Amino acid sequence: MDIPLTSLRSEFPILSNQTYLISNSLGAMPRSVFVRMHEFAETWASKGVKAWADEWWEMPITVGNEIAPLIGAREGEVSMHPNITTILAIILSCFEGIENGRRTRIVCEEMNFPSLIYLLRNWTNTHGCELALVPSRDRISVDTQEMVDAIDDRTLLIPISHVLFRSGYIQDIQAIIQKARKVGAYVVLDAYQSVGILPVDVGRWNVDFLIGGVLKWLCGGPGGCFLYVRPDLSGTFRPRLTGWLAHARPFDFDVSEIEYVHGARRFLNGTPAISCLYAATEGPRMIRDVGIDRIRENSVRQTSMLIDKAYELGFGVRSPRDPDQRGGTVTLDVPHARAITRALIERNILVDFRAGSGIRIAPHFYNTDSEILDALATIREIIDTDEFEKHLNDRTTVT
Ligand SMILES: Cc1ncc(COP(=O)(O)O)c(C=O)c1O
Q1: What is the pTM (predicted TM-score) of this model?
Q2: Under a CB-based contact definition with an 8 Å cutoff, are residues 359 and 379 in contact?
Q3: Which of 214, 273, 219, 196 has the alpha carbon at shortest distance from 31?
Q4: Which of 259, 290, 311, 318 could form a disulfide with 331 if both were Cys (CB 3.0 to 4.6 A apart)?
Q5: Atom of ligand 1 nearest to the CA of 88
Q6: Is the dihedral of CA 50, 246, 186, 92 positive or negative?
Q7: How much distance in Å is there from the Cα of 165 to the middle of ligand 1?
């Protein structure tokens, strides 16, 4: 019989004194990360430079192998990088300097993560291309038909979020991928808000590129982002943003044109941030052990309960009501949401505020139902007692 999910709470130190409902931003740290970070320091202290040959050199791929089962990939198909924006820059650089049948259009949703839009806009501006941003009509979702219609035979790339960070809306990526295939465009699926809380399967979906990170739902800390490239395509790309780790023989230190290595390693560039990779494995291991279907089932139950209770308490909700269209986040639309969030944080109830959306609440497998209900009751109290008023001028954003 499965152990109750809440029996794992003791593995996460922060849960003993905070109501941690913010795993869509930074997942709680598993206790075993203390051991891994100590191992990193011990290895550095005792082995010094020999650590590279023993294990560090391979870590961007061996840690990728720990992520692979969570996205339906195989060993050797995933590489690790410091953040998603850099990964997108690497992907874009695969399309520089080649004709691509004169494809000049990049299509993505306006609700995509801004960091990626900044990069896409700069890239399209400097490469004679056009960035088509598909708007959201309700600030919750993106109409699939509008996305599909925006993709045409001029389209080169479609970098989209699987789950929107503002509302938790799950895009119909299969319809988008199908259209991309039809016109010969590539899809870059940002699964940062889905891996760890939803089943993800690159093989079944036939995704060209999948990008994500361990920071959020995978409880792996900052600096552990991952890139999967469809294995039959991988060898055709020559990323311009490259470096010695992508070379077939890096220790030749040859300065003639780079000879790319095969496999996931060809998307690497400079020296990897090894300490982050030590921390990155513990959360994903735990999530694999618990099982993603079980996590999803619990998440749907808890977010449905959250939405029902929010309506009962008179709050607006900016997340889909239909659980099939909803990831792990529920966004509440209440007046003075920023100030209320500050008041919640002061009471050690950790959630966040996103301008233009509201208060994001993101329970994970380690949260209890009563934590969620208590957080909602506290919001009601903060409003009813005007407690939020003392935070009205507080513009700090820390989460
Ligand atoms: C969907 C999504 N993509 C990307 C990011 C961040 O990207 P980066 O790793 O470049 O900071 C976030 C949140 O931090 C996100 O929610």
Answers
A1: 0.96
A2: yes
A3: 219
A4: 318
A5: 10
A6: positive
A7: 8
Ligand 1 atom showing the smallest separation from residue 82 Cα: 9
Query: Would you state the pLDDT for residue 396?
Result: 73
163 Cα nearest atom in ligand 1:
1
CATH 3.40.640.10, the chain: domain bounds: 33-286
79 Cα: distance to centroid of ligand 1 (angstroms)? 17
pLDDT interval class at 395 (50, 70, 90) = confident
Nearest CA to ligand 1 atom 14: 25
Contact assessment for residue 384 and residue 29, using Cβ atoms and an 8 Å cutoff? no
Pairing mode of beta strands 316-317, 330-333: antiparallel
Q: Going by CATH, does the domain composed of 33-286 fall within 3.40.50.2300?
A: no
Choose the residue to mutate in 85, 87, 192 for probing ligand 1, maximizing ligand atoms within 8 Å of C-beta: 192
Residue nearest to atom 16 of ligand 1 (CA): 165
Q: Is the pLDDT of residue 1 over 80?
A: no
Q: Give the mean pLDDT of the chain.
A: 96
Ligand 1 pocket mutation pick from 88, 165, 227, 276 by most atoms within 8 angstroms of CB? 165
> What is the per-residue burial (b if ≥16 Cβ within 10 Å, else e) of 219-243?
bbbebbbbbbbbbeebeebbbebbe
pLDDT tens track for 221-256: 999 999 999 999 999 999 999 999 999 999 999 999
Containing 78, the helix (H) or strand (E) segment is: strand 78-81
- Ligand 1: centre distance to CA 187 (Å): 17
Q: Which residues line ligand 1 (CB under 6 A)?
A: 83-85, 113, 115, 161, 165, 190, 192-193, 213, 225
- CATH fold of 5-24+291-391 reads Aspartate Aminotransferase, domain 1 (3.90.1150)
Summarize the confidence of residues 289-293 as an average pLDDT. Answer: 97
pLDDT given for residue 101 in this prediction:
61
Per residue in 163-219, pLDDT (tens digit) is 999 999 999 999 999 999 999 999 999 999 999 999 999 999 999 999 999 999 999
Range list for CATH 3.90.1150.10 in the chain: 5-24+291-391
